[in-house]
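does this look right to u?? iron/sulfur cluster version
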Amino acid sequence: MEKPKIAFYWCASCGGCEEAVVDLAEDILAVTEKADIVFWPVAMDFKRSDVEQMADKEIRVSFINGAVRLSEQEEMVHLLRRKSQLIVAFGACAQMGGIPGLANAVSRDEIINYYYHSGPMLVNPEQTEPQPEYVEQKLGFDLPVFYERVRALDQVVEVDYYLPGCAPTPGIIAAAVFTLLSGELPPKGSVLASSKSLCEECELNSTKPDEGIRIKQFKRPPEVDRIDPNQCLLVQGLICLGPVTRGGCGALCIKGNMPCTGCFGPLDGVRDFGATALSFIASLVDSNDPEEIERILNRGIPDPLGAFYLYSLPKSMLYGRINGKTAPEDMRDTAIEHQ
Ligand code: SF4
Ligand code: SF4
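got this back:
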């Protein structure tokens, strides 16, 4: 019997999600026993034309990582959507926009201006900028168009499932692949990881004080002489987002003495991860004096965007700024025509 076909593709990402698939190690053999990988540009020599020649819905599942910023990425995810029965947003960038999504805090023009005209290390005497089309001696070249904003995958095409993490761990990748190939599909739109918070699987959860956590001084890891590996990091004043983050990673960062930055994203039903994280952390401040509260927050959290929206700015209610202004309401949802 013919095996189901699966595909992997990457958009705006660092490559960590591709590494995570490679990290399946010998489990990748179990995957290829059950399915044929028909497209995986980072590892195998298939071309876009191979996908174009497939029948619609011929691929059982496409796993797409990375956010969408370029016209080429947009074209590819539309193509894979047409050719696939299921699309999985693979990793934090596809799910929420990820770290590339922080670029929505500035406009496209500001980025181009910095990197091609005003950056301190720049040498660009002719003040050139990348052009989508270039012709010289009758030979033409195309470059993808760099869009105004970064979008999560479901702001471009319909997504069936989400695999969280920066990057997803081999355990949840293998479980997701086998679940989706089994035919016993979870409800559409499910996030394929724990539905409980990270704290529930963290060994330090039992070290939280019964009377609750109150914090006078937030600290970043380099500001702590010695992080106690046996006490909840939040109790030590480190901004650990475990209480508002979906579990499933096995508390990887905590085991490395680093606080959780929230890469597994929000729990079910949360509209805006960053707003939830911010409001949770603010609720821990140990003061009723407005001036002291301001001092505690300003001193301890100098970069609130990075602290709370590290992975989720494009999916937030803020959505990001365009030319110094918050994007208007009608530009915050599925938005190909708004590019
Ligand atoms: S806040 Fe962080 S360190 Fe504390 S229990 Fe939760 S995940 Fe573990
Ligand atoms: S501890 Fe937090 S940031 Fe680290 S891998 Fe897990 S969910 Fe991601």
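The mean pLDDT is 92. idk if thats expected tbh
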